[in-house]
């Protein structure tokens, strides 16, 4: 039996989100604050027996903040299980209490936690006249958290995340229509409080650890003590008795030592001398405090570990943070193995952010090695090393979206072949695209090296600060990667940047052409045809997909870079490419030519001579705020970002105006833009007014495009 689906409705930072899981190892990846811990807690409220009491004490803070007012709404945590096994206990729990739905869903079960208004409140709401918003407001004002109850249900057939279904179950707050009775075919049949699935499965949760030492110092949380307690159930009692007798005898022997007895007598005599017989203690002993029962014996044990080769072993506080975390995780895994050996129903292991303080190679090894055939394991992580080795079919991506968190399933709907290609591609660097809020895909070293530099110099902030990942796919093929960005999968904006390779000179042969010139023209013709075909394929691929857009260099990056007005930057590195003076002079002359066939051929020859990657590195040293961003690159960045917050937009525009004034002090247009910006910053005009006036008067593409995509609110 394994968790196949989790639905969360109105729970903490989830409005109505669905998560899909499979047997074996699953991964939840996402940035900080994206809801990974809240998802784990939701699962634990149902499966972790140590949290059963917490499940009954939800409060207003557990409601999704996006609701505005929580009053009257429901929290629903729903788990769907597949391959419900033939264990007598589980079958008894699921079937006798109606958790297996019908023959069409054989082997599928649902188990739900519902936090809802009590019956009296639901009845009051159901008697309201449809459309009576004042009456609804009055009833809701009187509701407190004490008017809520927690119930567990099963045999539900409803998709709780569907807003239409939610309205049928809970009610329509806009139309003021609330059902007079609960439709149990939708919500499921109530499971008696005396019965709980948490008591019938093996479940362990390994939390994200921030302070290992404090965990070991806490007798309730110490993983070594918990491990011993779990294992101790299988030890023979007479062995405990034997150890206890030995401890008692040893205590007596220590207390009977001559020095101990003499010191005790001397202390007693000294007190009597000081305060007299009347005020002296009636008796005194020096006791040996060696543990004399199993629990105290366990508490006296400590773990000593050696990390060096000099045979030194220290306790957990004396080893590295990474070593301590690794020991902690290992003990918790062993504790889980002991627990699951006592259950045959189902085994679940949740591991939260295991990467803390652990070397990247150990992260991957740990992830790949912890895999039990009879256990469903769910990791949460923001480590690209772990996401690299995760099976893309078993990945859920979490992302922040305003006040909510949303979930994506990156392989949903892909063919097995598409999944395989994607899985092979996502190494530690490229898997960062699963964490990004926007993605730019390129296929060349020049773009990979120079685009981030250009954006940083021109925008004043980096692609990373904009939460955009630029990924060089090299020869993988855009389609094999970009297909995860889709309405059904990852709803993030992806820009594809590639070259059309349009010929920079005539491709038609003439009678006077030399063999070398004919070969050059044939090469240009072949590249141009490839570029046309590439565009046809990509345009068809991205058609009707709002999350993907293609941006093309008319020729190649190097040629278009000069075409945009950046001949100076390329001229600056000529001396690094050519050693002979004549070659240098010829190259500089070609680069500033107005003829594309001349400067184009020259810049491509320079890149070929020293390698495109090294050419880009040299060119990177010349990039400045004066560099012109090729329009197709600028538009690609804007598309990937999609929306700029007002604060981010103002930051970019302010930087851009300041640098333009510095670079072009005589341009009155930039002086006027600066005055407008200062007026806004001083509170004299609204942002809406600033946006309108700047867009009207500015001649700078960066400012115009950023303003268009900046929220007015």
Could you please describe the fold and organization of this structure?
This protein is α/β, with parallel strands linked by helices and 713 residues long. It has 30 helices and 18 strands. The strands form four sheets. The protein has a six-stranded antiparallel sheet. It has a six-stranded mixed sheet with strand order 8-11-12-3-13-14, sandwiched between helices. Strands 16-15-17-18 form a four-stranded parallel sheet, sandwiched between helices. Helix 24 crosses helix 25 and helix 26 runs parallel beside helix 30 (701-708). The longest helix is centred in the last third of the chain and has 28 residues, at 515-542.
Throw out a few tags for this protein.
15% strand; 713 residues; alpha/beta; 30 helices; six-stranded mixed β-sheet; globular; single chain; 18 strands
Largest sheet entry: 6 strands, antiparallel
Query: Which word captures the global form?
Result: globular
> Given the structure, what is the number of helices?
30
* Radius of gyration, CA atoms, in whole angstroms: 35 Å
- Helical percent range? 40-55%
């Amino acid at each position: 039996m394994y968790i196949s689906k989790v639905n969360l409705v109105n729970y903490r930072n989830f409005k109505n989100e669905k998560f899909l899981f499979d047997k074996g190892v699953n991964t939840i990846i996402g940035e900080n604050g994206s809801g990974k811990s809240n998802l784990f807690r939701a699962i634990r409220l149902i499966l972790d027996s140590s949290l059963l009491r917490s499940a009954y004490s939800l409060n207003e803070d557990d409601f999704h903040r996006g609701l505005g007012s929580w009053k009257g709404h429901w929290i629903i945590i729903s788990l769907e299980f597949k391959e419900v096994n033939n264990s007598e206990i589980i079958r008894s729990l699921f079937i006798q209490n109606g958790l297996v739905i019908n023959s069409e869903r054989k082997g599928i079960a649902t188990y739900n936690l519902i936090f809802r208004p009590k019956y009296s409140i639901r009845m009051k709401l159901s008697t309201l006249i449809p459309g009576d918003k004042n009456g609804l407001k009055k009833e809701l004002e009187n509701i407190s958290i004490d008017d809520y109850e927690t119930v567990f249900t099963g045999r539900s057939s409803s998709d709780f995340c569907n807003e239409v279904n939610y309205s049928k179950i809970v009610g329509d707050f806009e139309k003021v229509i609330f059902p007079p009775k609960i439709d149990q075919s939708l919500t499921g049949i109530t499971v008696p409080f005396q019965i709980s699935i948490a008591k019938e499965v093996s479940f362990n949760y390994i939390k994200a650890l921030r302070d290992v030492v404090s965990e070991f110092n806490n007798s309730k949380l110490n993983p070594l003590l918990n491990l011993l307690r779990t294992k101790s159930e299988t030890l023979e009692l007479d062995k405990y008795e034997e150890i206890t007798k030995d401890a008692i005898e040893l205590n007596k022997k220590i207390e009977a030592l001559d020095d101990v007895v003499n010191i005790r007598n001397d202390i007693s005599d000294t007190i009597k001398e000081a305060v007299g017989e009347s005020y002296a203690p009636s008796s005194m002993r020096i006791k040996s405090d060696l543990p004399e029962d199993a629990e105290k014996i366990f508490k006296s044990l400590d773990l000593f570990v050696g990390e060096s080769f000099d045979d030194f072993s220290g306790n957990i506080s004396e080893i590295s943070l990474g070593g301590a975390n690794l020991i902690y995780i290992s003990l918790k895994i062993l504790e889980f193995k002991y627990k699951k050996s006592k259950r045959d129903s189902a085994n679940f292991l949740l591991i939260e952010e295991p990467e803390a303080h652990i070397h990247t190679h150990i992260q991957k090894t740990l992830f790949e090695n912890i895999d039990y055939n009879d256990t469903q394991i769910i990791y949460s992580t923001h480590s690209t090393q772990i996401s690299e080795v995760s099976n893309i079919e078993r990945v859920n991506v979490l992302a922040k979206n305003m006040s909510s968190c949303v979930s994506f399933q990156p392989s949903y709907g892909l063919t097995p072949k598409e999944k395989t290609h994607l899985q092979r591609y996502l190494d530690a660097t490229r898997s960062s695209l699963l964490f990004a809020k926007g993605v730019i895909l390129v296929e060349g070293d020049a773009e990979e090296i120079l685009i981030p530099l250009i954006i940083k110099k021109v925008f004043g902030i980096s692609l990373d600060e904009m939460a955009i990942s630029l990924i060089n796919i090299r020869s993988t093929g855009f389609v094999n990667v970009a297909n995860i960005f889709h309405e059904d999968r990852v709803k993030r904006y992806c820009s594809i940047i590639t070259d059309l390779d349009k010929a920079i000179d005539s491709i038609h042969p003439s009678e006077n052409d030399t063999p070398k010139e004919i070969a050059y023209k044939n090469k240009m013709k072949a590249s141009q045809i490839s570029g046309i075909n590439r565009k046809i394929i990509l345009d068809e691929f991205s058609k009707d997909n709002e999350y993907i857009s293609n941006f093309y260099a008319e020729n190649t990056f190097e040629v278009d870079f000069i075409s945009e007005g950046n001949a100076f930057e390329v001229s600056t590195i000529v001396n690094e490419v050519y050693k002979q003076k004549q070659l240098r002079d010829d190259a500089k002359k070609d680069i500033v030519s107005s003829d594309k066939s001349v400067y184009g051929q020259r810049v491509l020859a320079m890149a070929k001579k020293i390698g495109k990657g090294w050419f880009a590195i040299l060119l990177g040293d010349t990039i400045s705020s004066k560099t012109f961003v090729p329009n197709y690159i600028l538009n690609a960045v804007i598309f990937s970002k999609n929306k700029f917050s007002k604060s981010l937009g103002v930051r970019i525009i302010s930087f851009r105006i300041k640098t333009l004034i510095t670079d072009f002090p005589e341009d009155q247009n930039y002086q006027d833009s600066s005055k407008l910006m200062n007026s806004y910053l001083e509170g004299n005009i609204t942002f809406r007014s600033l946006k309108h006036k700047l867009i009207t008067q500015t001649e700078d593409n960066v400012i115009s495009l950023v303003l268009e995509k900046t929220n007015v609110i």
